[in-house]
Inverse folding.
């Protein structure tokens, strides 16, 4: 196997991981602060992609589309929080699963109603098209590198937001003691709405960026949602650091598994059977990693809740 | 007789009478609809054992539903071409044998899945059961021998001694009988020593441990039993549609099973039956009115969660006694 291919796939894994991080960061924040398990998070990813594609098609500018995706996802997140999610905070996880499952049905069908049954397409902006040559002779698309960069910047920004700002302090306080910070005069309701909208905006951003790499269609958020859940469970629910490590681990494992497992197996058991088994094992690999991690650390790698 | 028992008897009678009348009126479609209700109720009754009585929110029961379905599909296709099964077992299209194999395989799958998942609690349990189901789902769609992503069609429905399974009413009666047997089993379990311990484990794990019963084994047994019932439903479901589809294992199916249980009334004996009747009829009625029926189904579900806790049985018969 050539080094160039391995490097290229590693970067693909990194890009996938960073995109998962954008999803997982919102999920883990929402769970950590509000104790809410939100299945509808994938819908914000989908809305972001649709908003970006629609606005980009209307105005011809990808950047306006990107801004629209952030705005649309954040606004929808705030609306959903105020109308539905707010009533679920003191319910058990079962009710939360069911209510947010219902939200998926509603949001998916409403999107299909608005935009029709056919997928939309989104072009990569001209400034970021083409490939650059990296060391070891690797040609790599600029756009994917840009996604990696955006993801890392968002990660850094979230770290600074949570560790260094007043808002971050309140979020951390909300995580450890909800009643206490309410008693200290912080408006906990709007804090929750803000956190929920922030998480939704991050998901929308991820959807918009990935929308240029694949077709924009209803249901696109669901596979990503499940992977984002795997990520936060591996990382420890409520921990942004855990989400970051988990996302990169899942992204790289999944991508490398698909590339490396079939040839590795072919060397062991012969090519005829290897293609089937290799593909099956590769698509199961991240779930195997997750089961292994949870079997030994039932609360994930970096659990925020001890 | 209290109100819940009366309501249960009414549900059982209606579910039996409706397809018999439909069959007499030469409306096989409605017989198939009732069969679908009975099978989904059986799957949900399985989940109810873990989720309702044990408080184990499994978001991965579709895996067992799918395993059951694939067992029916694989047996049917081998029997069709008279090929022996793996390990040289003779192929057969007899339903009881298929059910036994489906039950055994589901138990074998549920044992390690449950043993690992039960180390975790709360939201981690929900997620790890989901992950195991996804694992099995991806295995099914990337394994080419039995259809892969296309699924596995069943050209001729598997057979049952003395009955003609191609006849809609005969097949319904088989499904109805299995459902009633499963509900009777659930009822016996609920009021047994084991069932008491299981419900105690949901209510207060520490107290249960303090009286000398380890919650882990109780829960694992309930999880395995629950998987077996859902697997049986899967085998029947594949026979009903003459198709074992990987979508039987998708996480949407797991979500739907949870919906059925909650819609009917979590932890109520006939909750799954009430839930399945309501869900399938809603699906059918809304599907007839608008193409966008999922939107309205979502709104109704949301309304149920937010405003009508306790589901249909809770609404009709009041709160459960032990709450």
């Amino acid at each position: 196997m050539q080094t160039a291919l391995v490097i290229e796939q590693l970067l693909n894994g990194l890009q996938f991981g960073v995109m998962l991080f954008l999803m997982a960061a919102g999920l883990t924040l929402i769970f950590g602060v509000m104790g809410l398990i939100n299945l509808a998070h994938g819908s914000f990813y989908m809305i972001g992609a649709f908003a970006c594609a629609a606005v980009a098609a209307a105005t011809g500018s990808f950047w306006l589309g990107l801004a629209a995706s952030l705005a649309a996802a954040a606004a929808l997140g705030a609306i959903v929080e105020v109308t539905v999610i707010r009533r679920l905070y003191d319910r058990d996880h079962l009710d939360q699963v069911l209510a947010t499952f219902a939200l998926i049905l509603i949001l998916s069908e409403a999107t299909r109603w608005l935009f029709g049954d056919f997928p939309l397409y989104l072009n990569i902006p001209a400034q970021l098209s083409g490939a650059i040559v990296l060391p070891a002779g690797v040609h790599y698309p600029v756009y994917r590198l840009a996604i990696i960069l955006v993801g890392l910047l968002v990660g850094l920004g979230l770290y600074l937001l949570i560790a260094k700002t007043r808002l971050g302090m309140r979020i951390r306080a909300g995580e450890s003691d909800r009643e206490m910070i309410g008693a200290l005069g912080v408006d906990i309701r709007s804090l929750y709405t803000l956190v929920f909208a922030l998480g939704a905006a991050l998901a929308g951003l991820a959807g918009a960026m990935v929308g240029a790499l694949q077709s924009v269609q209803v249901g696109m958020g669901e596979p990503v949602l499940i992977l984002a859940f795997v990520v936060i469970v591996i990382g420890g629910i409520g921990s942004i650091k855990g989400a970051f490590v988990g996302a990169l681990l899942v992204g790289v494992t999944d991508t490398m598994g698909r590339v490396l497992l079939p040839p590795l197996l072919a060397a062991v058991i012969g090519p005829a059977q290897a293609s089937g088994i290799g593909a099956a094992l590769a698509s199961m690999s991240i779930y195997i990693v997750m089961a292994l991690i949870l079997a030994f650390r039932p609360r994930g790698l970096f659990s925020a809740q001890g | 007789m209290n109100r819940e028992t009366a309501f249960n008897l009414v549900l059982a009678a209606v579910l039996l009478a409706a397809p018999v009348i439909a069959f007499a009126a030469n409306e096989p479609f409605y017989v198939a609809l009732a069969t679908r209700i009975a099978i989904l109720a059986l799957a949900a009754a399985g989940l109810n054992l873990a989720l309702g009585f044990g408080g184990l929110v499994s978001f991965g029961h579709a895996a067992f539903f799918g395993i059951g379905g694939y067992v029916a599909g694989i047996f049917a296709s081998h029997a069709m071409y008279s090929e022996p099964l793996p390990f040289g077992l003779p192929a057969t299209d007899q339903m009881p044998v298929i059910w036994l194999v489906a039950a055994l395989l589901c138990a074998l799958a549920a044992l390690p899945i449950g043993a690992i998942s039960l180390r975790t609690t709360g939201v981690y349990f929900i997620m790890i059961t989901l992950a195991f189901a996804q694992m099995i789902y991806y295995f099914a769609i990337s394994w080419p021998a039995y259809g892969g992503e296309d699924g596995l069609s069943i050209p001729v429905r598997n057979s049952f001694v003395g009955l003609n399974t191609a006849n809609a009413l005969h097949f319904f009666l088989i499904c109805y009988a299995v459902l009633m047997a499963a509900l009777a089993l659930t009822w016996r379990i609920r009021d047994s020593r084991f069932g008491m311990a299981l419900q105690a484990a949901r209510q207060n794990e520490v107290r249960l441990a303090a009286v000398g019963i380890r919650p882990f084994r109780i829960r694992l047994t309930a999880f395995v039993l629950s998987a077996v019932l859902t697997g049986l439903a899967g085998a029947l479901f594949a026979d009903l549609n003459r198709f074992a589809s990987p979508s039987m294992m998708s996480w949407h199916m797991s979500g739907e099973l949870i919906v059925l249980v909650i819609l009917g009334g979590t932890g109520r004996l006939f909750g799954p039956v009430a839930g399945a009747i309501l869900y399938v009829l809603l699906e059918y009625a809304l599907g007839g009115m608008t193409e966008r029926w999922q939107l309205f189904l979502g709104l109704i579900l949301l309304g149920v969660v937010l405003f009508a806790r306790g589901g249909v049985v809770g609404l009709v018969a009041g709160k459960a006694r032990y709450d």
Summary: Chain A has one domain: 3-218.
